[in-house]
Amino acid sequence: MSDVAHEEHVHESTGVETRKLAMWVFLSSEFMFFGALITNYLLFKGRVGYTAPYPAEIFDIPFTSVSSFVLLMSSLTMVLADHAIHRDDQRSTRTWLIATALLGMVFLAGQAYEFTTFVVDEGMKISTNPAASAFFTLTGFHGTHVLVGVIMLLTLVGISFRKGRLSTATGLNLENVALYWHFVDIIWIVIFTVVYLIK
Amino acid sequence: MAGAQTKAHPSPKQYVQIAVLLAVLTAVEVALYYIEEAGVSEIVVYPTLIILAILKFVIVVAFYMHTRYEKGIISRFFTVGFVGALMLYTVVLGTFGVLSAIGG
Question: CA-CA distances (angstroms) from residue A190 to A171, A186, B55, B56?
């Protein structure tokens, strides 16, 4: 194990910094949100009698597998940024943050390409059938979460350039952004299996 | 000010090893998808896919989100949200499944 132990300056009776605890509570509540959307897709994906195509008929598994790999690797770069800031290595922190944001943007570009292919080439719009509607809603909201994460990452990079360093004590906290980013990743792990791989 | 010293986190090398493991698990998942297409029973493939997804989920939460190294209160908050959502939506899916079976 590394000799880097995370020192928390805690004022709260819980022993956990309030911002961090709030982030965990927020992420916990997000399970309800994404759970509803995943359930919605599972309920509608088998409803027959509507206009084709259905999402499962036109998935490009090799392409989505690469997207999943990109998002998984962004979790690695994110945790390396988190590790670097706890060693006060500002240069590495910035580098890993930029790498994470870039990987996030690659994932979003992949999703935009996938949506475009589905709508333009395959003719599956959000109103084509209930399964398509549920699919676009679920993956669209996940993509929105990734976009928010990229914006937070770029904000951290901007702060880092402007102030010369990032602080874990005040302002937008890298550790909380990292938690959010990893959460987006674990939700995609579920979506990739439940929506794409299981027919 | 009370300072709370948490356990030592993994090293960068260990983080990379974890990422390699996650990548391998993803590759196995994709391979299973094609194995099922080739005719292997979904009774074998689908539970395996779910187990692999759970494994990846737990690895990210434990090592990248550091719940393995943090105070228990964090894990408890997270687990309550996850298990609560899982129970609720399992009931919803079960209910609709039962209803469609009766209707069909």
Answer: 31, 7, 11, 9
The ipTM value here is 0.89
Residue type at B12? P
What is the predicted pLDDT for the residue at B103? 42
pLDDT band at A8 (very low <50, low <70, confident <90, very high): low
Q: How far, in whole angstroms, is CA A15 from its chain's centroid?
A: 28
- A169: pLDDT confidence band, cut at 50, 70 and 90? confident
Q: How many residues make up chain B in this entry?
A: 104
Q: Which residues of A touch B6 (CB under 8 A)?
A: 5-6, 8
- The b/e string for A35-53 (b: 16+ C-beta within 10 A; e otherwise) is bebbbbbbbbbeeeeeeee
Count Cβ–Cβ pairs < 8 Å, chain A vs chain B.
Answer: 161
Which of A73, A83, A193 shows the shortest C-beta gap to B53? A193
B97 falls in which pLDDT band (50, 70, 90)? Answer: confident
- The amino acid at residue A172 is L
Helix, coil or strand: residue B63? helix
* Cα A108–Cα B85–Cα B57 angle in degrees, nearest 5: 50
- Confidence at residue B3, expressed as pLDDT on a 0 to 100 scale: 40
